[in-house]
Amino acid sequence: MKNEILKCLKETDGYVSGQELCERLGVSRTAVWKVIRQLEAEGYGIEAVRNRGYRLHDSADILNEAEIRAVLTSHWLGQNVKFLEEIDSTNNEVRRMAEQGAPEGTLVVAEIQTAGKGRRGRRWDSPKGSGIWHSFLLRPEFAPEHASMLTLLAAMAVRKSVSNVTGLECLIKWPNDIVVNGKKICGILTEMSTEEDSIRYVVVGIGINANTPDFPEEIRATATSLALELGHPVHRASIINGVMCAFEEYYDIYRETLDMSRLKEAYNQELVNVERAVKVLAPGGDYTGISHGINDAGELIVELADGSLREVNSGEVSVRGIYGYV
Description:
- The protein is of the alpha+beta class.
- The protein folds into three domains: 2-56, Winged helix-like DNA-binding domain superfamily/Winged helix DNA-binding domain (Arc Repressor Mutant, subunit A); 65-269, 2-Layer Sandwich (BirA Bifunctional Protein, domain 2), CATH 3.30.930.10; 277-319, SH3 type barrels.
- The chain has helices spanning 2-11, 18-25, 29-41, 65-71, 90-99, 150-166, 226-230, 236-257, 264-269, and strands at 46-49, 53-56, 81-87, 107-113, 131-138, 170-173, 177-180, 183-195, 198-209, 277-281, 287-294, 300-303, 309-312, 316-319.
- It starts with a helix and ends in a 7-residue tail after the last strand.
- It comes from Ventrimonas faecis.
C-alpha cells in the first residue's frame, strides 16, 4: 500500500484527499494516516491540510523500493525490483536470484555494497548515500558471442539517463565508461553464465557516482560525481528509471540485428574517443593512433601512423586528455 500511496502523491499536482486514497486503495483512513506517518519517518516532506488532503513536497534524495516503484516508467526492466540497505554486491545478488529462477528484468538496488566489483577484479567502493549501485538480469535467446555488446548498450543507457535527468554533458569512453568534464562517473560490469552454446543469463551491473562529496587523493584527478559537477545532490531513483527505460529502447533495437549497425551512429556521436589520439594497452604491446569510432561489432577502429587500421576488441584503451594520458 505504501508504494501505491507514494506513487499517487507523486502523480498528483496539488493535494489528494484522504478519502480519495481510501476509495482508490480500499483501505481505512487510519491505514492511510499510518502510511503517511511512515513516509514522513523515511524523510518525505508531506503537508496535511484539513479538508484538502495531503501534498508531497519536493523531497531530498531518498532511495528505497517504494521510491523506485513510484518513479519507474519502464515496461519490463525493473518491474521486479529488490532494494537492499546492504549487500556484498548487487551483481552477486542478481546472480543468486537468477539461479533461483528470477525473471528477466529483475533489478537489484543497494544503498551499500561491501564488496562492489569493478573490471578485472578491482574493488568498487560503494559507501552509503553516495551512489547508484544497481544490477539487472537478462535472459537473452541469442548466442553467447553476441553478449559482449550489451555493455555498450548499458553505457548508452547511462549516458542518456544522466544527460536527461541532470542536463550534464556526458560522453562515453570506449567501451563503457561514462565521463563528465574528463572525469569518470560510472563503471559497468557485465557477467554471463553459459551452458554449452547458449546463454543461461546475463547480469549487467552499473555503479554511478551520484552524490559522492569527495574522492581519495589518488583518484581525485580522474573521478567525479554528479553532485560535484552540479553543485547539488541528484535524485537517484529518477536516474535509475532513466537507465531502465533507455536500456529497453536500445535492447529492442539490438535484438533485431544482433550487432551495433543500427546503434553505431548514435554511439559514435556520444564517444569521447572519436577522432582523438588514443593509446591502446594491448597484450602484444602498446600502440597509439587515431580513433574513428566503433564498427558494427562494437570494436574500436584505430588508424595507425602508417595509415593502417586496427580493430580493438579487448584490452584497455587510454584516451589523450582522459585519465591522465597526455
